[in-house]
Amino acid sequence: MGNRFRIFIWTLFDFANTSFSILILTTAYSVYFREVVVGNSAIGDFLWGLAFSISMFVVALISPFLGAIADHSSNKKFFLFIFTYLCIVSTGLMFFVERGDVVLGMVLLILANIGFEGGLVFYDAFLPEITSERSYGRVQDMALRWAMLVHSLHFFLSILF
User: Fold this and answer.
1) 39: alpha, beta or left, given left = phi > 0 and alpha = psi -120 to 50?
2) What is d(CA 58, CA 32) in angstroms, rounded to the nearest whole number?
3) For residues 39 and 90, is the Cβ–Cβ distance under 8 A?
4) What is the 3-state secondary structure (H, E, C) of 2-23?
């Protein structure tokens, strides 16, 4: 498999990660959680922030261990799969969160974000395998630009329709 194809695949994964970040953490689910699940903006914001903070605290605790595994293990794909699967399943189960399901909504957010952030550790560990150290910034920039371009287009189309 050529490096350009591997970089393209890596970019697609970044596109999916950006989707989670924009739709779940920033816009759609955060507003749904606050306005519908909790039904109160002030308390909903506090609970959202609490759940997000808990998830990031767990990520801060486990990231050094995950980084060591990513750097010294041949199982990066396995761990990337496990954390991505945790994120996908938790995000999918958010569909069933309804008005008043505050604890369920918070637990799913915590698990999804741990899966998302933990997966990023292993995702980033693949960068040295697809490009040279000199090109890290350029490849990461390209992936982020494409993701933002496509998501901006999607956002503007959703406003029109």
Assistant:
1) left
2) 24
3) no
4) CHHHHHHHHHHHHHHHHHHHHH
Q: Is the dihedral of CA 69, 73, 76, 81 positive or negative?
A: negative
Largest CA distance in the chain: 52
pTM across the whole model: 0.85
Is residue 10 classed as helix, strand or coil in its secondary structure?
Answer: helix
Residue 54, classified by CB atoms within 10 Å of its CB into exposed (0-12), middle (13-18) or buried (19+), is: middle
Question: Can you spell out the DSSP letters for 51-104?
Answer: HHHHHHHHHHHHHHHHHHHHHH-S-HHHHHHHHHHHHHHHHHHGGG--TT-HHH
Tokens 């000199």 belong to residue = 134
List pLDDT tens digits, range 92-150.
999 999 999 999 999 999 999 999 999 999 988 888 777 666 766 676 777 777 777 77
Angstrom distance (rounded) from CA 90 to CA 117: 13
User: Count of CB atoms within 10 A of residue 24's CB?
Assistant: 22
Tokens linked to 94: 């958010």
For 34-55, write each residue's pLDDT tens digit.
999 999 888 999 999 999 999 9
